[in-house]
């Protein structure tokens, strides 16, 4: 028999989760070039997302960062070396050989596999682990795939929010469970913690704790993975941050707008910064055709008189 109190609780909980995860229409022009980004991704890369949901606004307030969600890029099916691991992901997501796949933990869904294209039009950033070997990247991907189907740990998200407030204001019975090890319980996780555990499985650091003992020896200690948030991948010195803005300097070719001379005149020695005859100069115009302002030179320095010009190697 269905417990009426549980049914009421589940009803309000599902309504609450729906409100937290609701995203309005994306009216902002995309800041990231998705096509370039998807071309440059490598298996094992971390993707940061600037979320637009209500829970994303809460996470922004907690972490003081725009990055509210993180996910792991695992590549296409043929990028996964282990055949059993490849078969495992197909149990959760019916992928085609050309699909670029990701693994993420979502509120209301748990840890799931999906296609990268779902984030087209969003503000994204790549965080690439420096020097991660292919073998370890496969282990990280394998760890994440084994987490598929686990629930989202809402309690951990709430505990993390409370962890940001002064500890002495919170009664003991309300205090965080972030530091408890619940062996044997069903696994629950959040997006950044799941990936932190995946990288910790190969001893790859994200935000480690460094300590120098009395002998001067430096030791590195792993940080509690439950305390890792999406911005930590951005701040980590062990991850390269890769950006692909929608309007890039390479595409705008700003350097082509510089007033370079096209007549072949060049300076041979340090200190050569004066042109005596401007009649033969041809400057590169803003349109790149060299026809505009061809006879214009910098007026910052006046042309010297003929008497002031001394040929090189001549003595005064």
Describe this structure in words.
- The protein is α+β, with helices and mostly antiparallel strands and about 325 residues long.
- About 25% of the residues lie in helices and about 15% in strands.
- It is built from 9 helices and 10 strands.
- A 6-stranded antiparallel β-sheet has the order 4-3-2-1-5-10.
- The longest helix has 18 residues.
- The protein is globular, with a radius of gyration of 29 Å.
- The chain starts with a helix and ends in a 64-residue tail after the last helix.
- The C terminus is likely disordered.
List the defining traits of the structure above:
316 residues, alpha+beta, six-stranded antiparallel β-sheet, 9 helices, 27% helix, globular, disordered C terminus
Summarize the structure.
27% of the residues lie in helices and 14% in strands. By secondary structure, the chain is α+β, with helices and mostly antiparallel strands. The relative contact order is 0.12.
SSE topology sketch:
Blueprint: H1 4-21, H2 34-40, E1 46-49, H3 54-63, E2 69-75, H4 83-90, E3 101-106, E4 110-115, E5 124-129, H5 134-146, E6 151-152, H6 154-163, E7 188-189, H7 191-200, E8 209-212, E9 218-221, H8 230-235, E10 239-242, H9 249-252
Parallel strand pairs: 6-7
Antiparallel strand pairs: 1-2, 1-5, 2-3, 3-4, 5-10, 8-9
Helix pairs in contact: 5-7
